[in-house]
Amino acid sequence: MKTKLHYLFTALALFAGVHHAAAQGARFFRISGPVATTITAIRADGTLVWSNALAGTNYTIQTAAALPGGTNWVDYVQLPVTNSVNTNRLIDFNPPDGMVLIPAGSFKMGNSIGDSDITDATPTNVYVSAFYMDVNLVSSNQWWSVYAYATNHGYSFDNNLYGGGVHGQGKAANHPVQMIDWWDAAKWSNARSEKEGLLPCYYTSGAQTSVYRSGQNNLTNACVNWTANGYRLPTEAEWEKAARGGLNGKRFPWGDTISESQANYYSQWSANVPCIIYDVNSYSGNNTNCNTGGAPYTSPVGFFAPNGYCLYDMAGNVSEMCWDWYGTPYGQPTTTNPTGPGTGSDRVVRGGSWENFASFPRCAYRSRTHLDMSVNSMGLRCVRGF
């Protein structure tokens, strides 16, 4: 039996100049679900209040940049409903500088498209609470600004054990930082928090009495203050939800194919035939927009178009370190705000990089790294709570 979806429109415009991260011209939202609903308020803080929802079902907030006839709506966030009256914050008109609100909601995490080479990402329904995320990858300039503060306030960083080069490199000030290991990414996140007067997230033990500032500590889930308002690495679920930008069931944040105009990755061809069918470039090699000046062939942060949540470089450029230990199945220990397995040997890395084939930037593709690995194709971006 075919379910009829009922739509209720609301014009919620974001005007250019409100905030760099949130303002992308006008934006409109509507609700779709099994029964028609009633919008009772649109608050100044971006919260939508609506009623007459059918409890025990799912609703979808959709968005469009214009209203030329209702054909350009795309999914924005999925809302599991338990009450008839609901309040959902869709946007933040004044988020922390350089960040954007990722709204609370559920999504299909994993390889829902059925790509045969992804065997460690079984599709799983996951709910993630709202959080803020950096619009851009952490740039070299941003890294060194916090690093200078950190080394004058009790922090010490590792010496690039695997990379063999200078710690914390960047091709230019506005390119993503790389040549950092996972431990230093966690410490740097704490230093960024303290520099801004926020509560750090990472501690040296489950007692959470000593802020993590030095050494190679085997941090566990208990070492994290998940309610702190400071910066931290995203969980794997947070990263994938943000990367999809509300667009579920696609390979990439924008759809099912990829080209050099959309992301910085390595195109692979053989005898004038693409080795990966969804790579629609017509050559083999590094992105021609970025392959100058010698490796690493990174691109400036924000060089390519953003996804549905106004995030840049969620596919390609440099891969991004996450909090979770790598493990399968994922969605552990719960599918509501999962934080990953309790133990492991490698941490999850997502998003692919300038030197990776088109298979790596897929939203569901999972990579991993040793904690002391530092390479010129891996960087970070932070999230934070409220």
CATH-defined topology of the largest domain: paralog of FGE (formylglycine-generating enzyme)
The CATH architecture classification of the largest domain is: Alpha-Beta Complex
Strand order of the largest sheet: 1-2-5-6
User: What is the general shape?
Assistant: globular
Oligomer: single chain
CA(first)-CA(last) distance: 43 Å
Q: Which bin fits the share of residues in helices?
A: under 10%
Rg is 21 Å
Write a structural description.
- By secondary structure, the protein is mainly beta.
- It has two domains: 1-94, no CATH class; 95-138 and 195-386, paralog of FGE (formylglycine-generating enzyme), CATH 3.90.1580.10.
- It has helices spanning 140-151, 182-195, 236-244, and strands at residues 6-10, 28-33, 38-42, 47-51, 58-64, 74-80, 86-89, 99-102, 105-109, 124-128, 131-134, 231-232, 266-267, 269-270, 273-274, 285-286, 319-325, 347-350, 367-369, 378-379, 383-384.
- Strands 1-2-5-6 form a four-stranded antiparallel sheet, with no helix packed on it.
- Helix 1 (140-151) packs across helix 2 (182-195).
- The longest helix is centred in the middle third of the chain and has 14 residues, at 182-195.
- It starts with 5 loop residues before the first strand and ends with a strand.
